[in-house]
Every structure is written in structure tokens, then in C-alpha cells.
Amino acid sequence: MDIAALIAWLVTAVGGFVLLGTWIAKGGTRSRHSRFSPGLVFGHFALAAAGLILWIVYLFAGGTALAWIAFVLLVPVALLGFTMLARWLPGRRARDEAVPEQHFPVVVVGAHGVFAVATVVLVLLAALGVGS
Q1: CA 65, CA 68: separation in Å to the nearest integer?
Q2: What is the DSSP code (8-state) at residue 33?
Q3: Extents of the domains making up the chain
Q4: How confident is the model at residue 47 (pLDDT cuts 50, 70, 90)?
Q5: pTM (2 d.p.)
Q6: Helices 2-25, 38-61: inter-axial angle, 10-degree rounding
């Protein structure tokens, strides 16, 4: 379960990097039209990255406490992610090209979300000791 969670987290991170790169390249940090504040985007990224690093430390060092802390970090990551999705969807339907996040590939957004949910579930199961 631990390695499956790591793989899901890494796949999620790759999708996240694509979305972050697209947002920055399309002027997200400078745009007055973006529905995402830089704090929202970079907070989501920073917490997810911190959790991933903590998960890797957990894999090497062990300790149930580290697994639970990684899971707890995923809760605000998921909430920030859902916030961005809720802000992205109405604009996506309007197809407003002035908004940086409207350039996100829909497939990447969907895959990022699916793998993010899988990551949360797998990390929870691993923290509970399922499959060990």
C-alpha cells in the first residue's frame, strides 16, 4: 500500500506540474483575470510537495506518526484543489481565453483529480496499516 500511494502521489504531482507550468506560462502570476490567487495555487503546491517529501521519509524511516501527518497534510491540499476546480469549471464552460487557467488540458485536470483522490485513499489505508 505504501508504494502504491507513492506511485499515485508521483503521478498526481506530474499532472500538477503540467497545470502549474501552464498557469505560470499563460501569465497566472501576473493576470488580473485569473480566478486563482497565487496564494491558492502555491499553497496547494507547497502543502502537496511537503506531504510527498514526508511520505518519502516515512517510506525510509517508518513510523505510523509520519504516515498520519502526511495524510493530515493531504486534507488541506484536497480542499484547495477542490476550490480551484470549483473556480475553474464555470470559466471553462465560458471559454474565456483571457483567463490563464482556461488553457489547462482537460484530460490533465481530470487525471490529476482522479490520481489525487486515489492518493488520499491509499495514504489513509497505509496509515491504517491495511496491506502491511
Answers
A1: 5
A2: S
A3: 2-127
A4: very high
A5: 0.91
A6: 160
